[in-house]
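From the methods appendix. Each design record in this collection lists the tokenized structure first, followed by the designed amino acid sequence. Records were kept in a plain field format so they could be parsed without special tools. The example shown here is representative of the layout used throughout.

RECORD:
FOLD TOKENS (226 positions):
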């Protein structure tokens, strides 16, 4: 059963909104984490260079409660972010209807996204933060390693837009770069933006004059959007 155009529109919009919100609020969360974990800045000079003046500048956003409460509160932003890019990826998967190896790789990636979403929810909504953090690390390993292979296969199968598979492939390098200047949560940024772009593209490319749902099938020579 295909995803209705109205539902696809909601998913696409939600993905864009949460990508933007995660990019902005995610950095406030990083500052809140630095206040709750002062040692974070010791081994991260790049993060300290912008974080310390930003904490002073944004003090009203960070001192309304104790550091731990502020940190956990802002951390909840990652729950709808993960839900959004998981839903966006699922929309693209259903509309693309991949076959063979690409289909299996998609399923692994979507499983990683669902696990990441559960991990983040457990981090900030339950008392088992340490345990759920380990689940999230395992999910990141699946997402990063699986994304490299999936991205290569998607490019080979002429997926459009190319931006999304490229962002999947650079997840690990981006993670290392991001964590040197901000918090681990922002390593999800390429997924947020990549799937928002892809969901928007597949939603527009599947429109008909009657705005009827279209199921796009792919093999090694087919693509989305042209």
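DESIGN:
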């Amino acid at each position: 059963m295909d995803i209705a155009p109205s539902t696809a529109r909601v998913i696409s919009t939600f993905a864009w909104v949460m990508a933007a919100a995660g990019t902005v609020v995610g950095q406030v969360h990083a500052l809140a984490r630095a206040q709750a974990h002062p040692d974070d800045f010791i081994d991260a000079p790049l993060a300290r260079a912008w974080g310390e003046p930003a904490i002073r500048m944004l003090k009203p956003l960070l001192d309304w409660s104790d550091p731990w409460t502020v940190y956990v509160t802002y951390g909840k932003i990652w729950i709808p972010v993960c839900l959004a890019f998981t839903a966006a990826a699922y929309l693209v998967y259903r509309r693309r209807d991949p076959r063979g190896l690409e289909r299996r790789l998609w399923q692994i990636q979507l499983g990683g996204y669902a696990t990441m979403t559960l991990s983040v929810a457990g981090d900030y909504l339950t008392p088992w933060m340490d345990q759920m953090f380990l689940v999230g690390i395992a999910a990141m390993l699946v997402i990063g390693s699986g994304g490299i292979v999936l991205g290569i296969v998607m490019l080979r199968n002429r997926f459009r837009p190319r931006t999304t598979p490229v962002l999947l492939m650079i997840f690990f390098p981006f993670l290392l770069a991001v964590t040197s200047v901000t918090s681990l949560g922002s390593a999800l940024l390429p997924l947020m933006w990549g799937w928002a772009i892809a969901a928007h593209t597949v939603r527009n490319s599947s429109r008909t004059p009657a705005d009827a749902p279209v199921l796009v099938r792919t093999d090694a020579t087919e693509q989305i959007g042209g």
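APPENDIX NOTE: The radius of gyration is 19 Å.
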